[in-house]
Design a protein that fits this description.
By secondary structure, the protein is α/β, with parallel strands linked by helices. The chain has two domains: about 140 residues, Rossmann fold (3-Layer(aba) Sandwich), CATH 3.40.50; about 150 residues, Rossmann fold. It has a five-stranded parallel β-sheet with strand order 7-6-5-8-9. A four-stranded parallel β-sheet has the order 2-1-3-4, with helices on both faces. Strand 1, helix 2 and strand 2 form a beta-alpha-beta unit. Helix 1 crosses helix 11 and helix 5 crosses helix 6. The longest helix is centred in the first third of the chain and has 20 residues. It is globular. Bound molecules: N-carbamoyl-L-aspartate (NCD). The site of N-carbamoyl-L-aspartate has 11 residues, from helix 2 and helix 6. N-carbamoyl-L-aspartate (NCD) binds next to helix 2 and helix 6.
């Protein structure tokens, strides 16, 4: 793999290969046995133009577990604040010859733009509302770990489908791996087109989650909405907030997932998010490390 820019560029075999490598690193982390110096000669630039807790930190942990060194560049303290433009900033950073770049940006296709200019591999850590491939990969790893498979799983994604890059990457990955995918959102948060014709769209939570194995909730991506599309968080929660009662009535035994950040009182009830027998949320976070070790290994370790 030269870069990892999106799930759109991967086929089922390539996704399967990354998941196998992630599973290898997951077992290796448990046993304490892997090559701690695998990427010891590599310097990786983290170019995060948008805030992050999980993605940025777990990329750094993954890189360090493999012996790489990381430069966490900060846009707020960079020369962008002195009027340097994005392209010149990227060319400047690339002239220092990093071995890899992990980046997140609010503009559509920014990682692809950087990949076309750079001489090193670029990994997309979140591209606008378009793609967040490592999130979809760690979500898939989490489902595979829990259910033993992805093929045939009934997965419902609830929330801001239109503005969520997590939805963008997950819909593609899950369809490519043979899961049955449904999306639930109010019409204002549903995209005009879905990436695969097999994906069922619902406006009603109960209909959309019926018989689901996994219900994945998503945050309202208010920073990407031109105006307030939802009258209030409370109004959204009333119609689309996931509760144990609704889950048990329509999808008994389903597990809940959320890529985070979880906004309390909006996506799901607190007790459901905290219930370790129903929530895979912290497993998703933990699986971010082996998944990103796998991606760094496949992209930089060859
Ligand atoms: C997501 C993101 O930034 O795309 N978070 C994450 O990476 N785990 C989801 C979000 O911001 O809602």
């Amino acid at each position: 793999m030269r870069h990892l820019l999106g799930i759109d560029e991967l086929d089922a075999d390539q996704i399967g290969e990354i998941l196998e490598r992630a599973d290898y690193y997951s077992r290796a982390l448990r046993d304490g046995k892997w090559d701690h110096n695998h990427l010891a000669d590599k310097i990786i630039f983290h170019l995060f133009f948008e805030h992050s807790t999980r993605t940025l930190t777990s990329f750094e942990v993954a890189a360090k577990r493999l012996g790489a060194r990381v430069v966490n560049w900060n846009p707020q303290t960079s020369s962008l604040s002195k009027g340097e433009n994005f392209t010149d900033t990227i060319d400047t950073l690339c002239a220092m010859h990093p071995d890899g770049i992990v980046m997140r940006h609010a503009d559509y296709g920014a990682p692809n733009f950087v990949a076309a200019r750079s001489t090193c591999p670029v990994i997309n850590g979140g591209d606008s509302w378009r793609e967040h491939p490592t999130q979809a990969l760690l979500d898939a790893m989490t489902m595979k770990e829990h259910f033993g498979k992805i093929e045939g799983l009934n997965v419902t994604i609830v929330g801001d489908i239109a503005h969520s890059r997590v939805a963008g990457s997950n819909m593609q990955l899950l369809c490519k791996m043979g899961a049955h995918v449904r999306v639930v959102a109010p019409p204002v948060l549903m995209p005009e087109e879905l990436p695969f014709k097999e994906i069922e769209a619902h406006e009603n939570l109960a209909d959309g989650i019926k018989g689901a194995d996994v219900v994945m909730t998503l945050r309202l991506q208010k920073e990407r909405m031109d105006s307030a599309l939802i009258s209030s968080d409370a109004a959204y929660y009333n119609e689309f907030g996931l509760t144990l009662e609704i889950l048990d009535k329509h999808a008994k035994g389903a597990m809940v997932m959320d890529p985070g950040p979880l906004v309390r009182g909006v996506q799901m009830e607190d007790s459901l998010a905290e219930d370790k027998s129903r929530s895979l949320i912290l497993k998703q976070v933990a699986n971010g490390i082996p998944t990103r070790m796998a991606v760094l290994d496949l992209v930089l370790g060859g």
